[in-house]
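USER:
Make up one protein:

ASSISTANT:
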Amino acid sequence: MSYELHYWPGIQGRGEFVRLALEAAGARYVDVARGEEDEGQGIEAMMQYLQDKSVPRPPFACPFLVDGKRVIGQTAAILLYLGPRLGLSGKGESDLLWTHQVQLTIADFVAEVHDTHHPVGTSLYYEDQKAESLRRSAEFRRQRLPKFMNWFEAILDRNPRNEGREMPHLVGARLSYADLSLFQLVEGLRYAFPKATARVMKNTPRVATLHSGICAHRRVAAYLASERRLAFNEQGIFRRYPELDG
């Protein structure tokens, strides 16, 4: 049986963190909203879970994963569920919780990235809050971007299982969904804030090495080169507005 991933079809967004885990593990999955309606897929199939009153535990929003009778919403919760099933998390309780904690911190950071271009309201256009975005982005580049990235660098440095290894990991000695999510975070930052991110990456060499290692992962590399990998655009979380970079 295939997993069913539900997310908006035209953007990477938060669904991409789940998609990377599925792709890296070689898991069978269906990207439902991108499918054809005559095959029982498409937007309507996704919206049924969000709007149909017969769904006892509806997710609040996309992304959500359907596995048999289970419907799991929220990116971090989906990855917590998939991690042990895909071999992308530590085996012990301590590592499972630590991986989840790192993922929740990434989720916090992603929300802050989004707020650089929508600091006032999500229903407003960027042009309606440009002045506030300029101010928010300046603080983000100066304070929040280095603070988060330095934390990721620190936990890579303090992971004893990275000693003597060419490819560092955030948790234990093997690839986890947290590693994949940090890769996606760096990818998005390089798109949205290329100048600011380049400066920070010079001071976080372990993060840069992890990013390069994920790029070279066989399944991830194949996915990145495929049509399944959507390009970043100005409808998603990571948006390139040159005036916000610096």
Notes: The radius of gyration is 18 Å. The mean pLDDT is 96.
